[in-house]
Task: structure prediction
Amino acid sequence: MEEFLKGAVLHWVQDWGYLAVFVGIMLENAGIPLPGETIIVIASVMAGQKLLNVWYVFGATVAGAVIGPNLGYYVGMRGGRPFLLKMAKLFRMSEEDLVKAEERFQKHSDWAIFLGRFVAFLRIFASPIAGVMRMPFHRFFIFNALGAVVWGGVVVGLAYVLGENVAVLLKNVGLTLLGACILGAAYLGFKLYKKRQAEDAAVASSQPE
Result:
C-alpha cells in the first residue's frame, strides 16, 4: 500500500509539478489527511535531479502551508466543536482524547501552531482547534507563517541535499526530533551571535577615543 501511494504521488507531481505541491500541502494543512511530506520529498528529489526548481518547490510548499491552515482555522471557527468531534471520530479518537488535546493546545497554542507541522497529527488538527478555540487570528497567522517557512525549509532542504535517503532518515530519526534538533541548534547559534555582539560592543566602548 505504501509503495502504491508513493507511486501515485510520484505521478501526480510529475504531471502537475509545483501545483501538485501547493495543492497537496494546502489540503493536508487544512485538515485533509494527505501524505504532505511524501509530496515534498518527491518534488525536492526531482529538484535535485534538475527536473524542478528547488526554490519554486520551497515557495509552493510555504504557500500551501500558510494558506491551508487559514482554511482550517476558518472551518474550525465556523463548524465549532461538533466539527472537531466528527474529525476525531474519523481518526478513531475518543472525546476524552480530544479534550486532552484541546487542554494541551490551550496551554501552548503558539508553539502548537509553530511546531505543529513537524507532527502529522497536529498538522491536521492544530488549525481547526485554533479556530474552534477562537485563538486571535493575528497571532495564529504569525506563528503559522513562521512555522511554514521553517518546516518547508527543513523538509525541502533535506530532501534536496540527501535525495531519496531522506526517507530513511525521517523514518529512523523522525521529523519531530529532527526539527527540534535543528531549531535548538538555530537558537543556540542565535544566542552565541548575540553574546558575541555584546562582547564586541563592550570592547569597543572600553577603548579610549
